[in-house]
Structure formats: C-alpha cells, structure tokens
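Annual report, structural modelling task.

Input specification for the nicotinamide-adenine-dinucleotide complex:
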Amino acid sequence: MDRFQHYVDGAFEDGAAGLESLDPATGQAWAVMPMASAADVGRAVAAARRAFVSGPWPLLTASARGKLLMRLADLVQAAAPRLAALETRDTGKIIRETSAQIAYVAEYYRYYAGLADKIEGAHLPIDKPDMEVWLRREPVGVVAAIVPWNSQLFLSAVKLGPALAAGCTVVLKASEDGPAPLLEFARLVHESGFPPGVVNILTGGAEAGAALTSHPAVAHIAFTGGPGTARHILRASAENLARTSLELGGKSPFIVFADADLASAANAQVSGIFAATGQSCVAGSRLIVERSVKAEFLARLKAKAEAIRIGPPDLMTTEVGPLCTARQRARIAGLIARSLAAGARLVTGGEVPEGAGFYFPPTILDCSDAPDAPCLAEEFFGPVLSVAAFDTEAEALQMANDTAYGLASGVFTRSLTRAHRMIRGIRAGVVWVNTYRAVSPMAPFGGHGLSGHGREGGLAAALDYTTVKTVWLRTSDDPIPDPFVMR
Ligand code: NAD
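The model returned the following structure:
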C-alpha cells in the first residue's frame, strides 16, 4: 500500500498514527495516511510561529514572496495530472473534473503571486501640521487552514495563496478523508523553496483540528467545512481570540423562469447538481421552477439524469463517480427516506446500487406538494436535486431566501429587468445569471448565515490576512507642548 507523510518545519515525517484510506470506487484500502496528534499539531504551529518571527521569511520582500508563489504555481501546473489522479483515487471525484480543476488551481497561486507586492499601506492627510502618519499593512501571523475532503487542493489554494502573499505562515490541516493530493502537494511546496516552517501540512480529524484552532499562537483560522464543525471552531477560537473566515455549506436556489432558455438552463442545472457527484458547496440543490414550465423542465432533467454515465472515476468518459465515503452515502440515503416520508416524490434515482464502491445515482425529488420536506432545507452534499414550483416572481424570491444558508444562487431568465430585481433580492454571496458554477481567482466567494462569513478570492482575501499598523512620526524639533493635553 502507498504511504503518505506530513510536512512539518521543512521535513517529511510520519504522523502519530496511521489511517487506511479507502478507494471510493472499490471500497478497498489503497494507502495509509498519517494522522496528527495534538503534539504533532503543536510542533507544526511552533514551526510556523518561528518562521513568522525569525529566519528568512519575514526578511523577504513582497516581490520575493510573489516569486516563490509563482514557482509553486508552475510546479502545480506541471504536476496537475499526477495530483488529479491522486485526488480521483482518494476521493472518487471524476478525473475529468479533477484534471480541469487542478490545472486551474495553478491560476489561483499565480493571481496571488502577482498580488504579493501590491498589498499597499497608505499615507494619511492628517489634521496636525507637525505629524506624518501612515498605515503599514502587516501579515496577521500564523494561519490555521482547515479543509474538507472535496476539492482539497482548490480549497487550500484560496487560503494559502492570499495568506502567503500577505506574509503569513500556515499550518494546513487536510481532511482525514481523501488527503492524498494535499500531502503530495507538500512536495511541491518543498521544491518551490519556501523556508522551513512557512507552510506545514498535516492531516487528522477532530482531535488535530481542535488542537490547531485553540492553539495560542494561531492568529487567523480559515475554515471550509460544515456548520456543525464551524461552531466547534468558534468555541475553540475563544481560547486564542483568532480571527475566523468560515466557508460552510449551502442549499443554493436555482431559479428557472418560464421565459428562460430551458435547454441551456437544464444543462446548467445538471452541472450545478450532478458535477462532482453533487459534493460541492455551491451545488444548485434547490430547483425553484415556474409552474407553467415545470413539467417540461423536469422531463428534460429526468432524461439527462438517466443518461449520465456512472462509472469508475478514473475514466475520462465517466460523468458521475462514487461518493467519497460510505458514511456520506448512508447520510444521503437517510435524508431521502425522511423526505419521502414527508411527502416528496421520487422522479428518478434514489436507490443505493448493488456492488462495490460508494456509488449513488443522480436523483431528483419533487417537493412541490411537500414544502416542509427536509430535502428542501438540509444539505445533501450529494447528487440529489429537490424541486419546488412557483407562480409569481415574488414567490420565487421568497422561496429562494427561505433558507438558513446563503452561499450561491442561480437565476435563469431572458428578462434583463427581472434579472436585476432578483440579483438585488437574493440573499447569497454569489448570484449567477444564466450560468452556474463559474469561479475565478479574481472573484470573491463566500456566504451569509449558515454558509459562514468572510470572502475568499480577489484582493480583499489577501487584505484579510493583514492587520493595519498606524505609525505617527512627529516632524517638529520643538519641545513637546503641554503634556496634559491630548494632541
Ligand atoms: P466537516 O466540517 O466535517 O470537516 C471539515 C474539516 O474540519 C475536516 O478537515 C475535519 O477533519 C475538520 N474538523 C472536524 N472536526 C473538527 C474540530 N472539532 N475542529 C477543527 N476541525 C475539525 O465537513 P465535511 O463533511 O468534510 O465537508 C462537507 C462540508 O463542507 C459541507 O457542508 C460543504 O458544503 C462544506 N464545503 C463548503 C465549501 C465552501 O467554500 N463554502 C466548499 C466545500 C465544502
């Protein structure tokens, strides 16, 4: 079996324990992943802290940091096929998607490489004639980055890129499920020439996560995962009062008006819910469709869902592969059962197939007559679409916002004025109009409510990893006047 290692303080090492990783396509163990103990995490944070305060890293210019990030981007691009194959093997995500996504991950590092020397301070036109006052943008310190099992390379790039560009150091905890691509990525970080301790990569579960997020030397926690874990993290951050950015789940509305290009909307909906086997935080998992076209649109979706090629994730022809874990599949099947009991109607899919691997078919649940079915409120994180129907635009908007989440949303209409009204009214961090699932390093991304807070991507994400230092410099040689009067 393959064996993977942690990367701490510039060296590769075994974890305190090992965990067999299952190939989701077969259910068989294929590799042993290290599992970090609290002590392993402590050493990694200590290394990150040392690298932040002393050694070559704080002395590097911003341009030099950018060059390191650029080298990392080039190495990621060159290694994309190898990293994609590993992610496919360890998580079951189809090779068609991992190949394209990881090649694009390099662009995130490139974007932040270019941004490193554009994080500027400011000079203030201060209201005192004998003072010069300016603001320095300084890195906040050690960043704890925690990612879930889907898209680990992508979700860590949106944390590492801006944090390193800003001059922070990082301890990145991969998920205990599917960590192989990140542990392999550590080799590229090493090869790029980052000083020891600047980037540390471990894997582990809740114990390692809790040790990391409560560590007194951690200044910022950048987390992607579920809202339940986020609550643990916020409690842990009461120890170190670290800043947090939380990218959590979603129950994103996908709204189709009768005047939309239905063929195009159907393709976007298929991509929005069945790509990545639905294991995507932005999955357009709540179809809200105008009643007059509901039957036609559902017929299109059903035909498309049933034509999807389900199979081994490492074949380029496969369109839906297995779920990442058996646990995830059982959770999805349980939520479908509860939804059917609450009145939802199965349009297609829904049955756990026979055979090896953690497969689950593309599934559509019609909840038009079951507005309280749990499938309209709870995140599946799998290939399951819940459908509701509306009659008026006001109703569509009300249904779209009837969620505790607020991550992404999609609106399909040919009416420009209606599109603008919906853009204004929808409470979500992202609105896609006549498209879905588009991302870019330049575009901020994040949510409201149970979907978390903070934004990843874009310039603002790099500023989030900085703190402002205000400098006052007196330019007068005269003695300081009355010491008892505030100036
Ligand atoms: P999860 O919350 O169970 O785990 C996420 C990470 O947190 C893992 O690395 C896990 O080991 C770690 N963790 C677990 N307990 C911890 C603790 N007590 N302290 C610190 N860390 C701890 O999430 P999951 O089930 O692996 O992933 C699915 C969730 O992630 C879904 O809700 C999905 O929507 C969300 N997600 C969000 C985004 C986004 O950008 N908004 C992207 C992808 C996934």
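The first strand starts at residue 2 and ends at 3.
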